[in-house]
Automatic annotation (TrEMBL):
One of its GO terms (molecular function) is endonuclease activity. It holds the Pfam family MurL_N. It catalyses: UDP-N-acetyl-alpha-D-muramoyl-L-alanyl-L-glutamate + ATP + H2O = UDP-N-acetyl-alpha-D-muramoyl-L-alanyl-D-glutamate + AMP + diphosphate + H(+). Its EC number is 5.1.1.23. InterPro entries: MurL, MurL_C, MurL_epimerase, MurL_N. Keywords: Cell cycle, Cell division, Cell shape, Cell wall biogenesis/degradation, Endonuclease, Hydrolase, Isomerase, Nuclease, Peptidoglycan synthesis. Belongs to the MurL family. Pathway: Cell wall biogenesis; peptidoglycan biosynthesis. Residues 311-421 form the MurL C-terminal domain. It comes from the Bacteria. The gene is murL. Cell wall formation. Catalyzes epimerization of the terminal L-glutamate in UDP-N-acetyl-alpha-D-muramoyl-L-alanyl-L-glutamate. This is UDP-N-acetyl-alpha-D-muramoyl-L-alanyl-L-glutamate epimerase. Residues 6-288 form the MurL N-terminal domain.
Length: 454
């Protein structure tokens, strides 16, 4: 064991070794290994210990912990993608295996594409328990929402919408981002910071040639928050994933690859139903923004300037280690490009330029980035950005506005790209129509719809 070396292509099995939760400290340990190599221990910390877990609550907590263990394994599994997956200390049924295969194959879709790997038919979770047909009981959880906050515009829209409806909420985030903390504090609501530390060996393995790439981080954060909800006696876990997240990048010769698959509807539905069936019948996991396009979210966000000096959607802020942009918006990544464009039709120009510190649409150096968003001579970037038709509609709207139409990239769109497009598909209004597919509790949705259509 001491002379074990990470040799990616020699590894035979990925092992889910065990998972434990210490109710006196609130620390969960998620333990994995490759073959008989060292234990890889990820920790998740839920503030509020000690927790009293008895009877059905204890069973639900154990199930939520196992679900988290199984989903969080994706960070380590991806490092070698071995043939075999083993679960050492508990057994899962076919239903759970199917959920995990769905999450691993699709959530690692971009990872597989970029690394030239084919994961279809390769990822098989071992089924060793009979199908559990029994429905998990309701725990009598208190009516309250743990609302995920990511530092960007989307979660702030949800938080303000729930505030308007008078729903009790705790603004919750995973990890140590100071930017997210600042946004959370700016809400003036109660906050909850859940700790997460990856196993340190993963960074060594990355240097030693591990496969690396995007992982389905949203469903992972969702599983952490589901565990927290059981422990903290809360009946709702709320995310802010918009409809547009269900659509990926169309790659010639490959098909659709969705960077943000775990923000999409298929993942929300499968994960939410699993939680309700296997963890607690009265624990509701849903995205409050599922019926909205990115443009509809941008329109909602623009209605208040309360967060202008605090929020950022630029993912360069969110590295565990390494560089951060100097002023919250790097200005050159796909998220900066898209958020600037999506907000432009709904905000006075000086306000938007003030937020970003510059006018991205008047900078010819950003041409290639905007072409990709428009799906012009390129595919949609692998990032959380809206659909190509949303970017095209936003550009078309700006091309009709005197304050925007002379800016370099808007002018280029009007002269070079728009003539090649079908003019009937460039309207913003149809993209603001709310979708019917969502898991928002009916009592909430009836009142929410009015806000989102006003
Ligand atoms: C901040 C970011 O974009 N990180 C991605 C980046 O990672 P990088 O190596 O540049 O830096 P770190 O984030 O510090 O990560 C270091 C290594 O750790 C591993 N890792 C990290 C987190 C995790 O949950 N699991 C991990 O295995 C990984 O090996 C890192 O190299 O590039 C990585 C490789 O492509 C990405 O995996 C990193 O993405 C993070 C998981 C992340 O949190 N990304 C979000 C900002 C993000 O992309 N959110 C999506 C949401 C969609 C979804 O749910 O899929 C989005 O906004 O598009
Ligand atoms: N560190 C985190 N902890 C918990 N939830 C998170 C974290 N980061 C992102 N999320 C949640 O994941 C979902 C997707 O994140 P995303 O980055 O799209 O949202 P956002 O930060 O609110 O807005 P934007 O799209 O402008 O960046 C959101 O519900 C967000 O609240």
């Amino acid at each position: 064991m001491t002379d074990w070396k990470f040799q990616r292509d020699a590894i035979k099995a990925f092992r889910f070794v065990r998972c434990t939760f210490d109710a006196t400290t609130g620390v969960a340990q998620l333990v994995y290994a490759f073959d008989d190599g060292p234990e890889l221990i990820e920790t998740v910390t839920v503030p509020g210990a000690p927790f009293t877990l008895e009877g059905e609550r204890a069973v639900a907590a154990e199930r939520a912990l196992q679900l988290l263990h199984l989903i969080a394994g994706v960070s380590y599994y991806k490092a070698a993608v071995p043939e075999e997956i083993r679960i050492d200390s508990y057994a899962i049924d076919a239903d759970t295996a199917a959920l995990l295969e769905l999450i691993y194959v699709n959530g690692l879709g971009e990872f597989a594409y970029r690394n030239g790997l084919n994961l279809h038919e390769k990822i098989r979770f071992p089924v060793a328990a009979r199908d559990d047909a029994t429905q998990a009981p309701a725990l009598g959880l208190r009516e309250h929402a743990l609302v995920a906050i990511g530092g960007g515009k989307d979660s702030l829209v949800s938080i303000e919408a729930l505030r308007t409806l008078g729903i009790g909420q705790t603004v919750t985030w995973v990890g140590g981002s100071q930017l997210i903390r600042a946004c959370a504090e700016r809400t003036g609501l109660s906050t909850l910071n859940l700790g997460r530390a990856l196993a340190p060996q993963l960074f060594d393995y990355n240097r030693e040639g591990a496969w690396n790439g995007h992982i389905p981080v949203t469903v992972l954060n969702s599983a952490i928050m589901v565990l927290a909800a059981v422990l903290l006696d809360v009946d709702q876990v709320v995310f802010s994933n918009e409809r547009s997240a269900s659509y990926g990048s169309l790659i010639e010769g490959t098909g659709e690859v969705n960077h943000q698959w775990s923000k999409g509807w298929a993942c929300e539905k499968a994960f939410g139903e699993h939680v309700q069936k296997h963890v607690a019948a009265d624990l509701h996991y849903y995205s409050l923004l599922r019926p909205l396009s990115e443009l509809a979210v941008a329109r909602q966000f623009a209605r208040t300037d309360h967060y202008d000096a605090h929020f950022s959607s630029c993912n360069r802020n969110f590295h565990i280690m390494g560089e951060r942009p100097a002023n919250r918006w790097c200005g050159v990544c796909p998220k900066c490009h898209f958020v600037f464009l999506a907000l432009a039709p709904f905000m006075p120009k000086p306000r938007l330029v003030g937020i970003f510190g510059r006018n991205l649409l008047d900078d010819p150096a950003q041409t290639a980035g905007y072409d990709a968003l428009l799906e012009y001579q390129d595919h949609k970037p692998f990032e959380c950005v809206g659909e190509g038709r949303e970017s095209r509609a936003a550009m078309a709207a700006l091309a009709a506005r005197p304050e925007w139409r002379e800016d370099a990239l808007v002018e280029r769109f009007a002269q070079e790209i728009r003539p090649q497009l079908d003019g009937t598909e460039l309207g913003i209004e149809p993209l603001l129509v709310l979708d019917a597919e969502h898991r928002i509790p009916a009592s909430l949705w009836d009142r929410l719809r009015a806000q989102f259509t006003a």
